[in-house]
Request: fold
Amino acid sequence: MITGKGVPFFYDVTLRDGNQALKKPWNTGEKEKVFLKLVNLGVQGIEVGFSGASEMDFEACEHLANIAPGDVVISGLARTLESDIQKVYDSIRNAKKPRIHTFIALSPFSMKFVLKRQPKDVQKIAVEACAFARELLGKKGSVQFSAEHFGDSKNNLNFVIETFEKCISAGADVINLPNTVERTRVSDFIEMVKKVARVIGKYCTIAVHCHNDLGMGTATTVESFFAGATQLEVSLNGLGERAGNTNLFEVAVSLHNSGVKVPLRMQEIYETAVFISEISGVPIYEKAPLIGPDALAHRSGIHQDGTIKTMMMKKGAYRPIHPTLIGRDSGDYIGFTSQSGKTAIYELLTKAGLPITMHEAVYLQPFMKSLAEKKGELSIDDMEQIYFDKLFNIKGKIQLIKFEEVQGGKIHKYRLHFIYKDRHIVETGTGEGPIEAVIDAINRAGFPVSLVHFHQMALDEEKSGARANAITVIKLKNKETNHEILCRGMSRDTRKANINAIFNGLNLLFK
Ligand code: KIV
Ligand code: ZN
Reply:
């Protein structure tokens, strides 16, 4: 059941909170590129900068407000100083939906030790700032007030709410509740959001702005939505001060998974994330939810088994979403380590174009595991090497030295030279085809086998390299015991591939 208040309003702060935390903040050109990505993603509001921070940021805010689509709210951030508020107004006034966003801390700690002011004075400053912003905007646009460090205001919440009421009376339309430094438990924060929503929710939009210092930004933001906050302040790739702001992608997907209608083009997420990483110089860490290179990787046998069984399904055994939801075309990734199992061997080699049965995968597993124990995750080349060594080159008591095609045409005659338990054997056989002739020679040499199944396939150039261009797969039966085995041979010469397969089979049948 969806208990959130309507449709979430995604208000992105990458260009402000994200930008202010970069080692090299973006210039106007770079900001425009990010801005266009946000528009493409379909966010409803964009904080374009801190207009008073520098001449460069002022220009960027002005430029982005000029090019903004008419349906997107464009805001600039201002301290409660008139000069800051004026700068924001001057820079974003041309947007169709301008917003002045002003803030001051209302937490006991910040008022005492940072602002060094009495609460009543701080409240007055907040209210006057909202009034001034409203005066500048007139009827056009909105005013947002943020109580910085709201998460620290559990003990003076009534004072904070009273300040909000006064700010609303002075012209604020949006009241933002920041968890400026994440040190409040999710459930405590949610209780505070609920109380604010109960008292003033009818008169304004409630926003939350969570930082991610303890890694719970997404949880707090998502739960705040269900507690009555509709404006969700987020950033691309979670960029922002310290450990960052709440990640837009995680919130969007989490709400989507909870049945909420998410007003974003979610299939743009992955490409946007990669772009943001490049332009910000902040790499996407390997394990980052949804967008990390490893976020869809499965290495344990149990997970690989479940993953492979549900790979084509919308819901996968071990993933939060189908990757195409966020535009990731690479599906689940299976990597083979010492923790992996037969299903991974089967899947990876089949995907690489190499025929294998589950029975053979079981046979290869100890060889693969033992290499992986030394090496870590195996590359597909490592796995192919083991596959060819162990399935195509079976070392046993029977070793082919050479074969001769004595006669072709209607009746084929083949002579085999091979070693069996140190004995050199030469035997000739005949048949309607070359394979029949070879099997006949083997029977005459005292090995009672028959051919049950034969299949030959060409190996693509890339796979075969100098090794082979034909693979033969046969099923050979011991006529005395009726025991059947599957065996393989490969060679650049198709006849040799067949004979290699038969000798590999003999070594499996007569150990
Ligand atoms: O984290 C914070 O408190 C802020 C405010 C300015 C909204 O970024
Ligand atoms: Zn912030």
Summary: Residues 348 and 494 are 26 Å apart (CA to CA). The radius of gyration is 35 Å. Residues 17, 77, 103, 146, 148, 176, 178, 180, 209, 211 surround 3-methyl-2-oxobutanoic acid (ligand 1) (CB under 6 Å). The chain has a mean pLDDT of 94.
